[in-house]
Amino acid sequence: MTKTLRAGTGLALSLISGAALAEWKFDFPEPAADLTEQITHLHHMTSWIAFWIMVVILAVVGYSIFRFRKSVGYQADQEFHHSWWGRWSWVVVPVIVLGIDLSIAGQASKTFAQIESPIEPDLTLKVIGSQWKWTYEYVDHTVDGKPVRFTSTLLPKEEAEKQGEPWLRSVDKPVVLPVNKNIRILNTATDVLHNWWVPQVAPKKDAIPGYINETKAFIKREGVYRGQCAENCGRGHAFMPIVVKAVSEEAFNQWIEEQKQQLAAAAEAAAKTWSKEELLARGEEVYKKNCMACHQANGMGVPNVFPALKGSKVATGPVEGHIKVVLNGRTGSYGMMPPWRDILNDGEIAAVITYERNAWGNDTGDLVQPADVGAQR
Amino acid sequence: MTSGDGHYYIPEGSPWPIVATLGVLLLTSGVALTVNDVGGGGLFIIIGLLTMIYLFYAWFSDVIHESMSGYYNEEVDRSFRQGMIWFIGSEVFFFMAFFGSLFYIRVISGPWLGGEGWLGLSNMLHEGFKFTWPLSIQPEDVAQAAGAPEKYMDVKEPMGAWGIPALNTLLLLSSGATVTWAHWGLKKRDNRQLVLGLILTVTLGLLFVAAQAYEYGHAYHELGLTLNSGIYGSLFFMLTGFHGFHVIIGATMLIVILLRAMKGHFSPEHHFAFEAVAWYWHFVDVVWLGLFTFVYLI
Amino acid sequence: MSTTAVAEEHHGAPSGLKRWLFSTNHKDIGTMYLIFALVMMFTGGALAMLIRAELFMPGLQIMQPDIYNMILTDHALIMIFGAVMPAATGLANWMLPMMLGAPDMALPRLNNLSFWLLPAAAALLLTSMVLPFLPGGGAPVTTGWTLYPPLSVQSGMGMDFTIFAIHLLGASSILGSINIVVTILNMRAPGMTMMKMPMFAWCMLFTALLLIIVAPVLAGGVTMLLFDRHFGTSFFDAAGGGDPVLFQHLFWFFGHPEVYVMLLPAIGVLSMVIPTFSRKPLFGYKALVGGLIFLFSLSLIVWAHHQYTVGMSPLATEYFMIMTIVISIPVGLMILNFLMTMWRGAMTFETPMLYAISIVIMFSFAGVTGVMLAVVPADMEYHDTYFVVAHFHYALLPGALFGLFAGVFYWLPKWTGHMYDEKLGKIFFWWNIIGFNLTFFPQHFVGLAGMPRRIVDYSPQFAEINMLSSIGAFIFGTSHLLFLYIVIKCIRGGEKAGDMPWEGAKAGTTGLEWELPSPPPFHSYTTPPVVR
Ligand code: HEA
Ligand code: HEA
Ligand code: CUA
Ligand SMILES: [Cu+2]
Fold first, then answer.
1. What is the residue range of B18's domain?
2. Is A304 on the interface with B (CB under 8 A)?
């Protein structure tokens, strides 16, 4: 409580100081792509229209209050509504309003047509939202027919502070995009609605499970652009940030090559038999990244919301059942456990299951190998 | 004050609204508990239902009594009529929600899943899925090919239009005619025609319900058409189910009216209850025509 | 029941608990509606205070994320369905029969039923809020008031209670609306033609018509949700051929007209208040009736402006955009009429009028930000940010709640026979308005800067504005305690109010309510009055 108070006074003080004021943001962040630039223009236009309409209304109200008050002896003009204005204003004003409306709509339609016009993409990025992380797929960069693909999650608070990154606006692995390229972004989701929103980069479209929505970006400046999930997706909705790193074409090509190599290495690793240490270490990593948001670091889950894995029948029972739940997900009395078959590979699933079966006092001693998982796919 | 001198009848305080509230509160919380497998819900439902049944009986007895005692003047009668019309209007919009959904799925989102139209790209997620209507193969089947568990069953055979459904159309349409015939009887003070017409209407209505029940059995056991068989099954049962429910309510009200007609409660000038039920019955009839066209025929 | 008692002597008020539980009297039922609304406003407001306390600073202060989401959901549901709508129905119940020269509402028993369904619904909602804290109670409802699937399919059994609460609330609104429509169409005193009715009656007529049309659609939508949750259907699941967006269409087909359901009663109050305190008749009565018809029709065909980002076809999107922007015409007409009623009037500034003037300004502001939101490409940035939150609180508080406050101040003398304390009223007004603007004006900017709505925790870059907003909210919240005090004080006593407590009402309004004594008799008009 005192901590809250102290922090509160601190912030309140800095509020008054001009330094903090300068850092305030009152408007859209500086757009970085062609469409977002146009949207910003549109936004400024409508803001000014709104401003002037308010000025007119305030002027009329202000003048009336000043002039037509009883206390200065003004007598109500009972004939006012029989005047010319009284008889015709109901046509005149709507026509003026319609004029303003149509010019707004006209401008808007132009920009909108550009947003929805088809492009020849240089790069297609598939963005998959899941509770509560983003998976990116570079559809046209493949290894053995499998696209480059990785998952990006919230950077934990301590990590963020260590790296000097803004908390809740930084991730463990940013998505990298080239500048001056036509990028087509395909949005979808695996469980509930999400929305991949990076205000400076692209107009947003909902990510809807089972459907694909399209948006696009032509990024003009290199830089780091931040955003976050903009469609309520439940408990972790505040904790789904997005970081886009826009880099030059060369840097992008180099980066994507690295990703491909990592992918090939991972595929190899999944094929071999792993030692217990390897499994546990990798498993803990996978758990932290994918499972902890729900089942919690101590494996205790959240009462009524997520089941505990510590001592759970599934996590201490037959291995097959455990693999099945993780692969296919399940809907039960708690709600929905997502299926992981499309998100994790055999090696990762084997590792995380081994980890779960040996952590937090679940000492079953079982080892699960990638092949065991592959057998159940 | 009796009718006609410009005074308006205001009923005394009545306990029924609050009993009704308790009834629905018990009923809804009972259902909410039961669907979540919490014990005790069943008891709530039973008590709630009994309360509601008693309530309707008591409330309508009051109204009938007041009506028979001649408390209602023309203005009250008009209020009742208008109230009933607006109520039926709101029911129309309740069904519009389901018809709208049917339209949306068939014309807009279904084709997208199948790869056509604005979001046709979505088909990437269900490769090989074709959208047809009635939909029998679910989009998820593609994922199942990869081994995921099945969530929605496939439909073996969609429901045809020309068997029982066509017969049902005939049943309902003729019941609409018989109820009008009964009304004619009422207007010319022919109580025999009134009662006979109502008996016919009720019989036709009950036959309809029976045929519908049989059809449901057929759908579940032979066609593989269930609530769980994807969007076709969902829409089919939602639409026909709520319609069937309304038919049952309508038929119950008709039975009440029939009993009252036998007691000679209605006069050519004074028969709001009869007309309200007849309107309701026609409304149910019209909804069925919509159903027959959009769910069964095309 | 005691049907033998006839309206012959027009029975006086029954005594004891029965008077309230079994009531068939429009004033008693109106009072119950208003009290219920007040209780709900305090409940929903307390939840809002929790929201603002949580958002006072970055970090998780006082609650878990899913509890935050649940509080947010119930804040909205309670405020909209529990506070604003019942308060409007309460005003209608009190005033319509008096204005139109009727003894009571058209269907008095139904009236009682529509009221008593509300506490039942509130009980279900409260149950849904308590359940997650009980063992085995399931996960809380985290969806927000829009209840979008698939998230709402995931929630625990609290969701089922919420769904049933919505069913009851819907039933209550439909029955209440039928009553209002029938009263207006059928119960007017001889000579009180439609075009002579007070504008408040017109506004309530269209409010009620809207509800009769849209409330059943919401009921249908949440029923489908219930089936998806428990009975294996796939309306909102693509795996079975459904579409989550279908629910959004059903919800907003209800949800958008719903915002006008909340707005119109306030507009109705303003068209009583402004002429009264300007001492001349409402400017452009006919135009306003036309505007209402126009608004009514438009409101039913613009719903998808809440879903610009779901990926509708460009043609549909374009259509919804233009239609939405065009709403500024009928609403602009209303604003014009209010401004022109004040113009060349002889204004005085009692509390109801202060509210009316501030509403004209603040609601116009909400409207123009609404038009900004209606612009599709821009909404692809604004959507689901605090800019939207700021827009709709400007619309919902000035455009609905404050209008109801104005109505309460305006008619309290009529209801109780006492004048309220004008000085306290003015203090309340300023305290209220300053707190309100301090709370919500800054939220526009934090939204533009990129803060999404429905988040429990935010990045430190948004900290200052949020703190300002929270401080404003506490100022605003506490002001309502004064409101409560003023109302109670007025009920208990005060300067005697005449039959027409506002001298300007004579020049400004056309209703029959002023012809009755203050407080009016138990049955408003035992014999129909004849209008000039
Ligand atoms: C009382 C409630 C109320 C009212 C009256 C309005 C009125 C309007 N609203 Fe608002 N709105 C809400 C309550 C309300 N809204 C709520 C609750 C939400 C969020 C729901 C949720 O997601 O939870 C919302 C969200 C919302 C959105 C979706 C935003 C998003 O989620 O992305 C949009 C988009 O178009 C919108 C637009 C409008 C418009 C165009 C009007 C118009 O009716 C405004 C018309 C009025 C004027 C324009 C001012 C007066 C006119 C003049 C002075 C004439 C001159 C004007 C011009 C030429 C422009 N509203
Ligand atoms: C008519 C409807 C209505 C009303 C009146 C209000 C009133 C208020 N609302 Fe709300 N609100 C909504 C409808 C409404 N709201 C809706 C529809 C949403 C969207 C929900 C969603 O996303 O699904 C929303 C969401 C919403 C949010 C967004 C949360 C988020 O997206 O994460 C916030 C945050 O500031 C907020 C704040 C407030 C505040 C401070 C008030 C204040 O006006 C409250 C006023 C306070 C009182 C009336 C309290 C009475 C006094 C006491 C209880 C005394 C005690 C006082 C103290 C201890 C200080 N509301
Ligand atoms: Cu993902 Cu919000
Ligand atoms: Cu809207």
1. 1-72
2. no
B121 in reach of chain A (CB within 8 A) = yes
The enclosing domain of B160 has a CATH number of 1.20.120.80
Per the CB < 8 Å rule, is A211 touching B148? no
Predicted local distance difference test score (pLDDT) of residue A254: 93
Q: Residue C221 and residue B83: Cβ atoms within 8 Å?
A: no
Which residues is A246 bridged to in the sheet? A177, A223
Q: Nearest ligand, CA of residue C436?
A: 2
For residue C391, the ligand closest to its alpha carbon is 1
CA angle C271-C275-C278, nearest 5°? 145
Cβ–ligand 1 distance for C404 under 6 Å, the answer: no
Inter-residue contact B11 to C26 (CB < 8 Å): no
What contacts 24+ positions apart, CB below 8 Å, involve C229-232?
C229/B35, C229/C152, C229/C153, C229/C159, C229/C160, C230/B35, C230/C160, C231/B227, C231/B228, C232/B152, C232/B226, C232/B227, C232/B228
Which amino acid makes up residue B135?
L
Number of cross-chain residue pairs from A and C with Cβ atoms under 8 Å apart: 324
Residue A365 lies in a domain: yes
Interchain CB distance below 8 Å, A210 and B124 = no
Q: What is the mean pLDDT of chain C?
A: 91
Distance A330 CA to ligand 3 centre (A): 20
- Model confidence over C439-489: pLDDT tens digits? 999 999 999 999 999 999 998 888 889 999 999 999 999 999 999 999 999
Q: For residue B18, give the CATH number of its domain.
A: 1.10.287.70
Q: Are residues B147 and B220 in the same domain?
A: yes
In terms of Cβ atoms closer than 10 Å to its own Cβ (0-12, 13-18, 19+), residue C340 is: buried
ipTM of the complex: 0.91
Interface probe for B, chosen from A212, A213, A215, A341 (most Cβ of B below 10 Å), is A212
Q: Which of C105, C182, C250 to mutate to test the interface with B (most CBs of B within 10 A)?
A: C182
Q: Domain spans of chain C?
A: 24-515
Q: What is the pLDDT of residue C8?
A: 38
Going by CATH, does the domain composed of C24-515 fall within 3.40.50.11260? no
CB-based contact, C161 to chain B, within 8 Å: yes
Return the closest-CA partner of residue C240 out of B155, A276, A179.
B155
Strands across the sheet with A183-189, in order?
A146-152, A133-143, A123-130, A183-189, A213-217
Neighbours of C187 (CB within 10 A): 23
In chain A, the N- to C-terminal Cα span, in Å, equals 52
